[in-house]
Design a protein that fits this description.
The complex is a heterodimer of chains A (234) and B (128). Chain A has 234 residues and is α+β, with helices and mostly antiparallel strands. Chain A folds into two domains: 2-102, Beta-grasp domain (Ubiquitin-like (UB roll)), CATH 3.10.20; 105-230, Fumarate Reductase Iron-sulfur Protein, Chain B, domain 2. Chain A has nine helices and seven strands; from the N terminus they run E-E-H-E-E-H-E-E-E-H-H-H-H-H-H-H. With 128 residues, chain B is mainly α. Chain B has one domain (17-126): Up-down Bundle (3 helical TM bundles of succinate and fumarate reductases). In chain B, 86% of the residues lie in helices and 0% in strands. Chain B is built from five helices and no strands. Chain B has helices spanning 2-12, 18-50, 53-63, 65-90, 98-126. The longest helix of chain B has 33 residues, at 18-50. Classes of the chains: A alpha+beta (234), B mainly alpha (128). Chain A binds chain B through residues 17-18, 65, 67-69, 89, 92-93, 95-96, 154, 156, 159-160, 202-206, 208-209, 216, 218-219, 222-223, 225-226, and chain B through 2-3, 6-8, 10-11, 13-17, 19-20, 23, 85, 88-90, 92-93, 95-96, 98.
Chain lengths: 234, 128
């Protein structure tokens, strides 16, 4: 089957603003959008720029807007899109560098701001710091994040103000706030109760729908909001 | 600024689904209330202070069914959507069922708004 791929392109050296370019590609229904982009880059236009690495939904490099919604190109099959024309655009809310590549630096700055690492100054026990299966289960969902930015760049609050810490950073804060071995929950909650913290979330759910790992992001944000409001992690 | 405008325009085309439409309608509802209350206060001021015809004309505008039907739509939707958000924020466990809660909101909204439309039409028919 022949598929039309309409790509929002931008070359900072020659273009004043982004513009669409359509390519015709031979594809199987089971091809992924990433396969189509590889075919275009390999056989039609080598100047097309996009990120990819593992191509198996783990590295989170190839998040982009496909038919108007954030998805991973390597996890989106042609047959699931159900349209003769597939529109591919870069993520929204981050500075555009070239074609489908955006500057991820602001995203990672927000990520770092929530201390996404285990903090525990207590002397380590003889073996490991033990945790029950129930305690591990408490934050299991938010350990799945691959930092693809599909959630943060689907959020209208983030589009409106790039200083909002964003869903991905809150998810990664949640992962440690509710970890029984961690001792910096209060500090993280203080950071997230800032004016650009969790209360910028207006429960729109775009993040939950966009997450390629099916993380219940809005629920995680809701739990952090409640922890801030009640002062309790229960 | 141009990039921000482009983001806003493309953001409106983002396919976020029913919950994003609910958020947009919620924002529109807020704006509609500001416009309505603003018009009401301004019209009253003009009419009472100056006996102005402009105030009377504004009253005619916001009392017309063409103004009131969309206004009631946005206000009732805003109120119910606000209740949905309060409910979900208070009980984060319910956030897993956000789709069902959103449908529930529409199920409550539609008969309520239908009742309002019924009264508006009844008023037009009776010629009040």
């Amino acid at each position: 089957m022949e598929v039309k791929v309409k790509i929002l392109r931008f070359n900072p050296e020659t273009d004043k603003r982004p513009h669409y370019q359509t390519f015709r590609v031979e594809a199987e229904p089971t091809d992924r959008v990433l396969d189509l982009l590889e075919k275009i880059k390999g056989y039609q236009d080598g100047s097309l720029a996009f990120r990819r690495s593992c191509a198996h939904g783990i590295c989170g490099s190839d998040a982009m807007r496909i038919n108007g919604m954030n998805r991973l190109a390597c996890k989106t099959l042609v047959k699931d899109l159900g349209k003769a024309t597939i529109t591919v655009e870069p993520l929204l809310g981050l500075p555009l560098i070239k074609d489908l590549i955006v500057d991820m630096e602001p995203f990672f700055e927000h990520y770092e701001s929530v201390m996404p690492y285990l903090v525990n100054d207590e002397p380590p026990p003889l073996k490991e710091r033990l945790q029950s299966p129930e305690e591990r289960e408490r934050f299991d969902d938010t350990t799945k994040c691959i930092l693809c930015a599909a959630c943060t760049t689907s959020c209208p609050s983030f589009w409106a103000n790039g200083r909002y810490v964003g869903p991905a950073a809150i998810v990664n804060a949640h992962r440690f706030i509710f970890d029984s071995r961690d001792r910096a929950a209060a500090e993280r909650l203080r950071i997230l109760s800032d004016q650009f913290g969790v209360y910028r979330c207006h429960t729109i759910f775009n993040c939950t729908l966009a997450c390629p790992r099916d993380i219940q992001i809005t629920k995680a944000i809701g739990e952090v909001k409640k922890a801030i409001a009640t002062g309790s992690l229960d | 600024m141009t990039a921000k405008l482009r983001t806003s325009w493309q953001g409106l085309r983002y396919r976020g689904g029913g919950t994003m439409i609910a958020w947009l309608l919620h924002r529109l509802g807020g704006l509609a209330m500001v416009v309505f209350v603003g018009m009401h206060v301004f019209a009253s001021f003009l009419t009472q202070q100056f006996g102005s015809d402009v105030g009377t004309a504004m009253n005619i505008v916001y009392q017309s069914p063409y103004f009131q039907a969309p206004l009631y739509f946005l206000i009732i939707f805003h109120a119910l959507n606000g209740l949905r958000i309060i409910l979900l924020d208070t009980f984060p466990k319910l956030l897993e069922y956000q789709r069902e809660v959103t449908w529930l909101q529409w199920i409550v909204f539609l008969p309520l708004y239908g009742l309002v439309v019924f009264f508006i039409i009844a008023r037009i028919v009776s010629g009040e």
